[in-house]
Amino acid sequence: MNPSTSKAEEATNQAQPEELQSTSSQFDKYRKPDGSIDYDYFYNNPHEGNMQLECTIVRHMLAQIKIGMDLGKITLPTFILERRSLLEMYADHFSHPQLFAAISEGKTSHDRMMAALKWYMSSFHAGRNYDVAKKPYNPILGEMFTCYYDFDKSTPSKPVLDGPVPWANDRSVAFYAEQVSHHPPISAFYAEHVANKVICNAHIWTKSRFYGLSIGVVNAGRAVISLLDHNEQYIFTFPAAYAKGILSVPYVELGGSATAVCPQTGFKAEIEFLTKSLWSKAANRLTCKVFSPNDQVPTDLIEGEWTGVLKLKKCPGSKNSPSKDQVFIDVTATPIHQKLVRPLGEQQPKESRFLWRYVTAALFVNDVDLATKRKSEIEQFQRDEAASRRSNKTDYAPKNFKRVQADDDESPWWYHPSLIDRLQKGSQIKLE
Predict the structure, then answer these.
(1) Quick one: which of 195, 164, 227 has its CA closest to 415?
(2) What is stated as this protein's family in its record (predicted)?
(3) pTM greater than 0.70
(4) Which of 200, 230, 248, 297 has the most CB within a 10 Å radius?
């Protein structure tokens, strides 16, 4: 056992059986030479083993809920779960790490605003591992996920031993996520590129409602990009998500408004994610208006598909507007880098892949009953932990995140020790 492992983590590990037990030989082809199951295989091969959605079960579930009902307490059938935690899904927002690192390289504040928008608009498409909409596992309180993206191998690098991912280097993008609250279910995540001094602090939690033929998910919270060399922050909100076609083949669309604001320079952007309509079959579209400081008329206009090509368009009334449409970004031609995750044998008990390994393995071989059983064990363990805290009259304290304003429930969560802490420049950045 890792000497830094807490008693709670030891209990989590002991609460689960040493190995999956099955009366069949369904796991035999996934065993290592020593006979143990290779759980890393199930995570590293996400496209295999997909199950067909059983619409009769979905209809049975929908018959129990009413239009407008909050779905926060509805348990979805295990067979429609994606084989990973929600914390890991958030890491996919950095699958274009080169765009995240490049935000600080803009020569002007306008260039950096546009670079931040380019990363943000390209960050939604990379996590589509399934052709149909599936729901990741709900993280339990205290769950963690760590990974990094090693995309710049041509430049000499050095390890960042005091960072959130000590096995990453200063030219990679390191990512750390933690479930910091259960009610409401808040996930917080942090990313950094040390060489360019770019960091991201974010917190997000979802509220779901049933609308008859779709499920709407409001993503509350925000992401704050900090450029330490420029003393600038870019504060983003998130669009809503809609699961449609739930009686046939479910798919996900993003919809609604989001904003991006830089308080230090005055640049701001209004982003509208557009869903399919009766008069238009176009999908995954957005439009973005960028405003310079003190301007009431947009200086830049971006339109297109966030899953394809976004164009910088001629913007009437703007002196800096291009004379003709230009490609702002083509995400299909932008390299996606795979996250690098430690093998499960090196992970702590509450790291996502280790924690959910039995559920993931069972779903991979389509054993829904076994997956449901293992999922229930994890959920029961979370309830037992909560009962123990109530009995001892103690509050839960996240491992690496703190609220910026401890007495404000709406305040964002900030990772510590962040790159700001480690460079001892905290006084230069005001936490918004």
Answers:
(1) 164
(2) Belongs to the OSBP family.
(3) yes
(4) 200
Tell me whether strands 240-244 and 268-274 are parallel, antiparallel or unpaired. Answer: unpaired
* Residue 416 structural domain: 11-428
What CATH number has the domain bearing residue 23? 2.40.160.120
Per-residue pLDDT 10s for the chain (432 aa) are 343 444 444 444 444 445 555 445 888 889 989 888 999 999 998 765 444 444 444 554 555 555 555 545 555 555 567 889 999 999 999 999 999 999 999 999 999 999 999 999 999 987 665 555 678 899 999 999 999 999 988 888 999 999 999 999 999 999 999 999 998 899 999 999 999 999 999 999 988 777 666 677 888 999 999 999 999 999 999 998 887 766 666 677 889 999 999 999 999 999 999 988 766 677 889 999 999 998 888 999 999 999 999 999 877 777 766 778 899 999 999 999 999 999 999 999 999 999 999 999 998 988 888 888 999 999 999 999 999 999 999 999 999 999 888 777 677 899 999 999 999 754 344 444
Instruction: Please spell the DSSP secondary structure of 2-26, one letter per residue.
Output: -TT--HHHHHHHHTS-SS---SS-T
Assigned domain for 2 exists: no
Q: 143, 350 in Cβ contact below 8 A?
A: yes
| Residue 335: both structure tokens together | 């390299």
Assigned domain for 175 exists = yes
Name the residue among 403, 376, 9, 344 with its Cα closest to residue 203. 403
Rounded CA-CA distance 113/78 in Å is: 42
Burial classification of residue 71, based on how many CB atoms lie within 10 Å of its CB (0-12 exposed, 13-18 middle, 19 or more buried): middle
